[in-house]
Structures are given as structure tokens and as C-alpha cells.
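Let's practice the habit of predicting before peeking. Look at the sequence and jot down your guess about where helices and strands might fall. Then scroll down.
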Amino acid sequence: MSNIWIIIRTILKRIYRKPSSYLLHFLAPIIVSVGIFLMYNIFSTTPITIGVVNEDQSQLSRVLIRNIDVTEGLEIALLDEEELENRIIERSVSYGVVIQNSFETDILNKVAPKIDIVSFDHNSGALWVKELTHFHIENMMLLSQISQEKSEVLLKLDQLEDSSYAFESIELMDVSKEKTATVNTFGTYMIVLLITTFTISFQILKEKEQGTFSRIGMSPVHAKSYILANIIANLMISSFQIGIVMLVLKIGFQVNFYTNPFIIYFILVLFALCAISVGVLLATLSNNAQTASAALGLILSPSCMIAGCLWPLDSMPEIMQKIAYITPQRWTLDAIELIQKNNQILEIIPNLIVVLSFTVLFFLISIYKIKHEDQLFS
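Done guessing? Here is the structure:
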């Protein structure tokens, strides 16, 4: 056991002998995470934009639109169906309200009209827009019940708007956008985390190429002991790095994680261990650093893109959304999204088990390879 700690100290000294290591392992992750976070501009107080498709084009439908528009914190964009679909995908419109062409007729006939609420993903914000719209429709239905003609309904609506009611004004904030921005920030950071863990794991290859392993420690050390020391050193650095990044986001930029930060910290540390297992696997399977670097290029970018680290999973074709779940990145991001949404630890346990299963699998393959390679450190 003492030999393992000697090797850990040796690995850490070698890594941080160069000033560039501090840049790669600590400064770069902070810059990337903060940059992505600010890019999404979640501190902005710009109003929530709601796209409205008014198929009815009647007086009552225009009254509904006007009532939604006067709500503080909301902006209305009048669109057709194609424009609404495109702008929802582009995220330039947060939610959509589609007023059917029978809206006024249904109101006057005392029948509840059908209103479609459109959003990129079904979240609490879409539910709130639905409740707001139904609130105004219920008021119209109530006035229709006690009125005989359309003109009388319109008159009562005008009287209601001109009456001296006192309303409490509150500022609306699109929480779903902030949660999405936080998940996307961690998704991008996971790419940096993969790179840093891989570079540390590739120290094994340098030792193999330079033949310096036999000079580590005071006595011969088994290959498995050296790899275990590499894993521990790597995990120590990654855990510290994750903590620094989260502290900067939380304290420096007041990021709301919408759950206990330690839960997200644990999720990211578990993913870091999985990334380390991949790095160790590549190091044991590769004969030199060039081969490992080529394999890294083939694995890193495609897996992160498929997993949705760089863009929302919902924007990908359905078949690609299913393929995404062959990557540990997707299960990790899903765990963060679930804990932010429901704040129930039990709901993320299956995700954590899957990520841990990936980790165990990669480590087992590495161990099998080591056992059948007697000249690993010769």
C-alpha cells in the first residue's frame, strides 16, 4: 500500500512540474464553463416570448391575445404555424399558443374552445402558459354564460378591463431556460473533463515508452498497483477540479443548480471515474501515445455529440436520441436533468448504476488486458 502512495505522489509531481498542467486541469475548465454559462445569458431579464397562431382572427381571439400580452414579463409574437415551429426549434420563442378557427363561435355557444400549447420540451413553464391561457378563457366563458349576444360579451370584457381592480405584479422568469443552460454548461464541461482525465491516464503510455516504471519506488511494483495509483491520482485531480468549477459558478456567478450542489458534484465525480476507466482502457490497449491519441479522437467528439453534450437531445432525430443512451455522457446528463426537475435522489439511481456499470466494464477489460501482457512495464 505504501508503494501505491509513493507512486501517486510521483505522478502528481510529474504532472504539475509544468505550469501548463495548471492551465489544462483548472483554469481551462473554469474558463470554458463560465464562458458557456454566460453565452446562454441566463442572467438576462428579457421577457418570455410567446408565439401565437391566431387561426380564428376574431374579436374575441384578439381580446385573448391582448390579455396575455399585458401580463408583465411576457411578449407576444404573431406567427403562422410554420413560423412558430421554426422559432420553437431555434429557441427564439419559448412557447406557442395556437387558437383554433372556431374559438369565438365556441365561446358564444358556451362551449370550451380548444387551445394548443406548443413548447420545445414539456416543462413547468409550458404548464404555466397553459394555466394562464385557460384562466382568461374561463373569464370569457363566464361572461358568455350571462350574456345574450356577442356585443354584450365584448362590452363586459371592456368593463372588466377598465374596472379598478388591484393586481399584484410579479416578475416572470423562464426557469426552464435557466435549467437548460445549466445542463448545457455541464455538458460542455464534461468534454473538458474527459480530455483532462485522458491526458493523465496516458501517463501510463509514457511510462511504457520511456521504460521508467522499474525506477518508481524502492522495490518492484506490480503493473496493477501502478495503474491503481494512476486512477487514484486522476480521481483526486478530477474531484478537485469539479469542486473548483462548481464553486466558481455558484459563488462567483450565483448559478442556481435547483438541487443540492453536492448531488451534482457526486454525479460528475462518478462520471469522472468512468472517464478515467476509458482512459486507462485506451492506455492498456494502445502500444504508443500516437495510437491512443487517434483512438481518443475517434471516441471523444462523436460520443459527446451523440450524447447531446453540445446541444439539446430533443433537437436530434429520434433514432439518434435512442443511440445516445449507449454513452455514459447521456446517462450523466439525464441524471442532472432529473435531479433538477424533481429533486428526488431515488429517480437518478438507475442512471448512476448505468454509469457505474460502464466504469466497471472498462476497468475489467483493462485488467484482463494487463493479465495477458507480461511485458507491459518491461
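How did you do? DSSP finds 15 helices and four strands in the chain.
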